[in-house]
Amino acid sequence: MLHTHFINGEWVAGEGHELSSIDPAKNVSIWQGKSATSAQIDAAINAARNALPQWSMMSVEARLTIIKAYGEKLAENKEYLAKVMAQETGKPEWETATEVGAMMGKIGISEKAYFERTGNVENPMPVGKAFIRHKPHGVVAVFGPYNFPGHLPNGHIVPALIAGNTVVFKPSDLTPMVAQEMVKLWAAANLPAGVLNLVQGEVETGKALASHNDIDGLFFTGSSRTGKILHEQFAGHPGKILALEMGGNNPLIVKGVADTDAAVHDIVQSAFITSGQRCTCARRLFIPAGQQGDALLARLIDVTKNIKMGDYDAQEQPFMGAMISANAAKGMVNAQSQLVGLGANVLLELTQPDEEKGFATPGIIDVTDILASLPDEEHFGPLLKVIRYTDFDDAIREANNTSFGLSAGLLADSEEDYHYFFARIRAGIVNWNRPITGASSAAPFGGVGDSGNHRASAFYAADYCAYPVASVELDKVTLPGKLSPGLSL
Length: 489
Ligand SMILES: NC(=O)c1ccc[n+]([C@@H]2O[C@H](COP(=O)([O-])OP(=O)(O)OC[C@H]3O[C@@H](n4cnc5c(N)ncnc54)[C@H](O)[C@@H]3O)[C@@H](O)[C@H]2O)c1
Ligand SMILES: O=CCC[C@H](NC(=O)CCC(=O)O)C(=O)O
Hints:
By secondary structure, this protein is an alpha/beta fold. The protein is built from 14 helices and 21 strands.
């Protein structure tokens, strides 16, 4: 179907250049379309602007009725949506089923967050009453990444709509099909025309939408590189809200654990789930120097070697599927070569078994000897860098030696060590004896430094979807009992 854009309640064909989406596990084209032109972006924004008065002035209960109907459509179509996600991203079906589950869960959580964080408060005053209420920003653009093509844009769209905003959604150009199927479910839930619009396209479409004069805000999940471009673009526009959820170079420190296998499990879940394509994935693993550390590392290499990788639809499901594209897998091979060039020591080689496909085997590389020249980059794939340390303080200092600050973790049996670590580590998600991936939607989700701009998402998304309005109100104009000195009436 070439009608891949949803503008003002109608499916229309793009009028820009050709786009296609490739199944990265099978190297076949699964979706074709055309990008939105700037006239189509104008039309989408106009539609959202025109739909705004009616949508924002509906009661929140009436909006929630429609949003919950979308939740029902998600539930009715969950298997189908999970299959589409798996096909377009390469992620195994067991994992995309959890992604659809998170999308469904988002509705109840966002409803609760709306009332808890941005609801109405009424306080009596000596004369009249004081109110705190919240209003939507207006027309907001939502930009999504490819790694969670449903869950993460959904995590902006649902709270934005609950708060009364209208939306223009631009998904990643690597996952247009998931976006399209998701928007179909909104349409099936009878969302009024113009409230949610979908425009497809690459960077140029993103730039045109982000720089449009008539948006009131932009909610972005993606790389720090793009987020910084958007941040610069929004400089000088204090009236527009910008929420940035970006990448990380996340540390995980191991110190004094009795159960080696439990630690290895949490490391693998942190580093290699989603083939390392989660913003929260552990990128740098700190292991104590010495025999105990050697034993843990040997076990980690052994377990990682045996991780099952395969097609998303394999009967016996793999732990890791393909990465998003053959290019992304090649990028990881190149990242490994770059580290080797700097003097790093490969412990388990990351390979791309087929140049035409997105598979990359998990890799482990010791970078202890090149810390001074180690690039502070997010390598968004299954490559774990190991750093051997002798002093806990040094390890924490090095863990913080990054411009990012998304997630961090400590695997240690001592609670005292955890308190010490927690007080010193700089990140928005800090875990103890748990993987550092798999964050809860019922908690705030965001990072410091280059990982975000202090507008956490998930439970706190409600905060950036509405602005507070303070009022003092009295039902008729009334002369005060006592006038200010020097006044007579
Ligand atoms: N913190 C979080 O919540 C979170 C969650 C998931 C992914 N991520 C991060 O996202 C990245 C992976 O996703 P990605 O590669 O799709 O990100 P990306 O930055 O390449 O793209 C994100 C979106 O921005 C658009 N875009 C790209 N360049 C643009 C520009 N110059 N102007 C306007 N729009 C532009 C893209 O088309 C896409 O829709 C990783 O860095 C990962 O850590 C962060
Ligand atoms: O890739 C980045 C997201 C990773 C994911 N985080 C969440 O799902 C946050 C919760 C939410 O947004 O509702 C993870 O931690 O695995």
